[in-house]
Specification:
Elements lengths: L1 H28 L5 H21 L5 H23 L6 H20 L1
Length: about 110
């Protein structure tokens, strides 16, 4: 059972990375007017949700969903800072840190 949970956490992490991919892809797809970025965004959406559905076979749904969205939020916010020169204010970084704390807490509590 512990090995299955370990795999589920790994799958959930990858699902979160695909969530970051589709969120960033939305910017590049430009309202789904660009074919290749749109196709990659849609593929990332599908892969993200499919992997999430596999992870919730083992992990508690509420925990898995919160971690999945948290990974997506942190990754998207970080890439927004890097790729799109979004502001890196102290308040914004502190809030991202709180999300990280929440994800770690949920992982430790599961």
């Amino acid at each position: 059972m512990a090995a299955a949970a370990g795999w589920a956490w790994g799958i959930l992490f990858v699902a979160g990375l695909f969530e970051v991919g589709w969120a960033i892809g939305l910017k590049y797809a430009d309202g789904f007017t660009k074919v290749i970025p749109s196709a990659l965004t849609l593929a990332s959406m599908v892969l993200s949700v499919v992997l999430l559905s596999i992870a919730v076979r083992t992990l508690p749904l509420g925990t898995a969903y919160a971690v999945w969205t948290g990974i997506g939020t942190i990754g998207t916010a970080a890439l927004g800072l890097y790729l799109f020169d979004e502001p890196a204010t102290a308040a914004r970084l502190a809030c991202i840190g709180l999300i990280v704390c929440g994800i770690v807490g949920l992982k430790l509590a599961s």
